[in-house]
Amino acid sequence: VQLQASGGGLVQTGGSLRLSCTASGSIRSINRMGWYRQAPGKQRELVAWFTSIGINYVDSVKGRFTISRDDAKNTVYLQMNSLKPEDTAVYYCNLVPSSATYWGQGTQVTVSS
Fold first, then answer.
1. Which of 7, 44, 45, 97 is the most exposed place for a label (fewest CB within 10 A)?
2. Within 13 Å and on the Cβ side, how many CA atoms surround 1?
3. Which residues of 85-104 are buried (b: 16+ CB within 10 A; e: fewer)?
């Protein structure tokens, strides 16, 4: 099974993007999926993820990002609104905790000021 993130691009501050993460096969743990990001020179961080009882967000994206999923399509989404330059990063999807098997190439999000 491979995870393919897509939907990134270049947007201005305040803009929106919707990322998609599609599994090439069936993932029984889609309810454990999350979105990570890695900015240049920084460590990869988890920004939005599903838990057994709900959804969590890192403080820096709360109120701006929304994670959702379509189990029938094996797809997880990340709606990103009110984007800021500090959101610039490569975004990845993976399980939480992450699995080395599922790291893909990610999708680049660049927010211009």
1. 97
2. 19
3. eebbbbbbbbbbeeeeebee
